[in-house]
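User: I'm designing a mutation panel for MFS transporter and want to avoid disrupting the core. Could you give me a predicted structure to guide residue selection? Please restate the sequence first so the numbering is unambiguous.

Assistant: Good idea. Sequence first, for numbering, then the predicted structure tokens:
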Amino acid sequence: MLFGGTVVNRLGTMVEPFFGIYLTQARGMSLAVTGLVLSVFGAGSLLSQPLAGWLADRVGRRATLTGGMLASAATMLALGYSTSVPGIVAGMFVLGVVVDAYRPASQALVADLVSPVDRPRAFGLLFWGLNLGFSIAMITGGWLAEAGFLWLFWINAVTCTVFGVLVWRAIPETRPEASAHEGGGFREMFKDRLMLAFVTVNLAYTCVYLQAFFTLPLAMKDLGTSAYGWVMAVNGLVIVFVQPLTNGWLARRDPSTVLAAGFAIVGLGFALTVFASTALGFGLTVAVWTSGEILTAGMGGAIVASLAPPHLRGRYSGLYGFSWSVGSLITPLFGTRLLEAGPVVLWSCVGALGVVAALGQLALGPAIRRRSRLVTAP
């Protein structure tokens, strides 16, 4: 049910990729105002993951996921009909808070329902569903946008509602209660040095991976926007067709080792961008780092689930998601600065950062394996 709802939801995820175009074309905003509005959305996303993680542990996984989806649906419709700048800014902030609030609850649900040995495969399955739905949404969203952006908001709102109702009707609450001797809250989580180290390593990786969405299109600007679209389509195609074939095999391997290998390959793929000058060349580099992305699929969630006490799985998942939100804010800042110094500087530094993240993950591997054995021990 969770997988099916995720696919349906991502099939309707048509608004976010077209925010910039919508604000400039449909609402007539300048580029400066558009940038401000998008930054407000990013500020909301910073609050989203910790807040949703706390709610998943305190209120429940099912209520948090359903509530986040219904709130996203209502906010989508409000944004679609908003015409004033203050209304759009307020709507974008609220949307930033609620649109990804389902992630910590979803990850906690998987950790609650699936045995540790099967978690990498389960998280990998959700990863594949996200990419399958999003790939279709990108194609249909571009076509529907020509008929009117309001269609995108309505479809996104409907699929959010379907996902929320499906979870509420079909999935029971799985939140474990903390016993009297167990601590709770963020204080206990922030005392977990291993989790904090893992999140720091993951933040380094996000600053590598997110270059695909911030600096890669700038590096390809001379080839045109259509070239970037086709190159990024390689990412979706490789994931949709290759990841299901490798999911079961990778799930039987040590998550930390597989994750480190994925970090290194993603870094290598971006480093090879130094030699790319044509759409074909860029497409080949995307195929390389996408193969590394496939290795990382589900492994991060499985590690978080193994580190988190059962009654804090929501908060731990929220902290993991927070590293992605922070990465989305800082990646364009340093990425564009490095690109100004030249493509060689940018892609060499990004590749090196991928190797650093891989080495950091390998260093954490023994401690993560010890913690995992303690969690799964009878």
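For picking mutation sites, this is relevant: The mean pLDDT is 88. The chain has 18 helices and no strands.
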